[in-house]
Amino acid sequence: MSDLLLTHEPVVRGTVFIIVLLVMAVWEIVASRRPQRIGRARRWPGNLLIVVLDTLAVRLVFPLAAVGAALVASEQGWGLFNLVSVPGWLAIVASVLVLDLAIYFQHRLFHAVPWLWRLHRMHHADLEFDVTTGLRFHPLEILLSMGIKLAVVTSLGAPAVAVLLFEVLLNVTSMFNHGNVRLPVRIDRWLRLIVVTPDMHRVHHSIIRQETDSNFGFNLPWWDRLFGTYRDQPSAGHLGMTIGIEDFREAHDLRLDRMLLQPFVNPPRKSKRREL
């Protein structure tokens, strides 16, 4: 069973990724939320190539990844759920919730610590907001995030199936809540009670710092409400708000090489944001 899960994990994740990416891309064409000043041809090559680099980096540094860590923890008897007997369904549900909470706090940490923000700001430096923005993370941030995830998985003794479920959900919801898609107001109001919606997460990509430092959730919206970081709407409205950060606002900053170098260079207009 363990070998089977490890063997098919990349196939499951890859298949779901491609299907959701295509569905969201079509949805953005059919029912877009905001007009885009910079088109896909300018932005998508860099954003999609980052996914390839991130995948290669994780597989190189962490060959077993999170699911493999869960299997090793199970074999060695490491972690809470490998020491305490609980129903399988409860261990799965609890593991998904704890992992999502860990990602929420990790996200806040990457905004609060200046050198971590230097890595994370590449995600926010996209000049538009669509499905590929949800894939745009610096490889060093991805590696740090995976290290944190492995620590949580091992400490928790999370079942491998729960880890796989969480990884798939996180990938799917990240593409969904970064989508430039239009949802009826009533549906969005109810949907954001159980999952982060595009309108909810778009606030987080506002150029206004108070809005950037809100709505940190990627999957479940409850943590923002519980810990006081929830913001309902952007002050300028979804059509009037400016996407991105004050630094790196030139179109050439969307190139892959410029994106990879962003953490290591001072911005052309150094803001007072987190560089103090």
Automatic annotation (TrEMBL):
Protein name from the UniProt record: Sterol desaturase family protein
Keyword annotations from UniProtKB, A to Z: Membrane, Oxidoreductase, Transmembrane, Transmembrane helix
Domain of life, per lineage: Bacteria
Keyword Lipid biosynthesis: no
Any Pfam family the entry gives: FA_hydroxylase
Domain Fatty acid hydroxylase: 93-229
Database matches in InterPro entries: Fatty_acid_hydroxylase (IPR006694), Sterol_Desaturase_Related (IPR050307)
ATP-binding listed as a keyword: no
Subcellular location: Membrane
Entry's EC annotation: 1.-.-.-
TM annotation in the entry: 12-30, 51-74, 86-105
Organism encoding this protein: Halomonas rhizosphaerae
Record GO terms (molecular function): oxidoreductase activity
